[in-house]
User: Fold glutathione transferase from Aythya fuligula.
Amino acid sequence: MSGKPRLTYINGRGRMEPIRWLLAAAGVEFEENFVETKEQLEKLIKGGDLLFQQVPMVEIDGMKMVQTRAILCYIAGKYNLYGKDLKERALIDMYVEGITDLMQMVMMFPFSPAEAKAKNLASIEEKATKRYFPVFEKILKQHGQDFLVGNRLSWADVQLLEAILAVEEKVPAVLSGFPQLQAFKTKMSNVPTIKKFLQPGSARKPPPDEKYVALVMSIFNLS
Ligand code: IBG
Assistant:
């Protein structure tokens, strides 16, 4: 056995992408097992490895972990990206949950019916610029540090950069009113492990396209 974590999911972003981001930021190499058909998912389910009959599933340290948030917490804790004490952890949790709420809208966007696309895009822009990004702009401005919590890289920083880049793919000028976030994006993109992940050929998955939507719809029941 290689000892590398093994990720089971489709070959696309979905719910696995923040896990890929966090492992990459921690400098951890991983292997991927791509589910390509509904039959393959059903076989995995029959095999009994998916606790709730769902992916993402990550094999790590002898465990077969499911539930995205549990997996992320484990990786963040293991690789020192989860604060130095309970209070820093509480902040990281609050920031991550907020960003996850925004990312939920981004993740579901490709599945919007054509007639709802414009409205859903406007809603993502509105929530990003009026609710979520102002919070992080203010935090960074107030403490004047490079990272959101404890003056060192944490899970919250990684999730925020992922969210900024994902929203920018849809709304390129979204950071125009957020100078702190622009500087944050530049600094975070230059953290060596992240810089590597942002380069072509990494395990980072491309923006969702029609093929991705068709693949997801052919394998999963979206709810
Ligand atoms: N709470 C779980 C988690 O966070 O891990 C939810 C996991 C989940 O919904 N998994 C889906 C699944 O395995 C795949 S992600 N479904 C099994 C089934 O039988 O349908 C599906 C998804 C994508 C993009 I991709 C947007 C929304 C959902």
